[in-house]
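Ticket #254: bound-state structure for fructose -6-phosphate.
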Amino acid sequence: MQGSRLAGLAADAVETLVQRRPDAVLGLATGSSPLGVYDELASRCATGNLSLRRARAFLLDEYVGLPPEHPCAYRQVIEQELVRRVDIDPAAVLGPHGGREDLGAACQDYEHAIREAGGIDVQLLGIGTDGHIAFNEPGSSLGSRTRIKTLTARTRQDNSRFFPSLGQVPRHVLTQGLATIGEARHLVLLATGLAKADAVAAAVEGPVSARCPASVLQLHPHATILLDEPAASRLELASYYRECFEGKPSWQGL
Ligand code: F6R
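RESOLUTION: The complex was predicted; output attached.
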């Protein structure tokens, strides 16, 4: 599937949800994968076809040690990529507080805030080349909650494109845990490009294992994985998945 089609489908899932429930709780990912979805949401808001005025949102993760106004802090990134371009109330968009002195308390408060909001309705996800979702790196407990994690060298390298130099990519992050993510009512993972093909194959067709944290999606009752052709290229059953998608009844939605 083409990248723009993937973004349109994910935006449709958000739009359908918000039409049904204007105060829906959205789960937002950062990084490159959801950017097309944010473009779509922004253009649907601009044309008046969608309003996120009453929606609330939670970020997946945040770097530790970056001041909130730092351009690479995920709270800033989401501000630029989505919040400023739609009509959501900026105060209704929360992320884990990676600048707080007591990081353990920041994590507990974040879990509490998600629970208080009634949980996340639709969670957008990307996947790391090492199989992470949010910043749950290989070895993350499948039962994990929001906590501090150490980034792998590979993830720091992958994310260095957003920073002036590799040395400036923080080593630590606060991230929703795999169990936290698993409580969202609908998971929508987007992946594009050949660099993601091995991680996607391990997540979808490998064993459920902390070795590939994204494989935890196999346990979720409503997980949608949207892939372009290169990202899908190492799936053994790709032609069967295509057949399922093409024959999907329209009433079913994503
Ligand atoms: C970011 C996040 C990460 C990214 C992943 C893929 O909030 O949760 O899991 O989704 O690192 O990043 P991109 O999309 O930049 O390839």
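RESOLUTION NOTES: The chain has a mean pLDDT of 97.
TICKET STATUS: resolved
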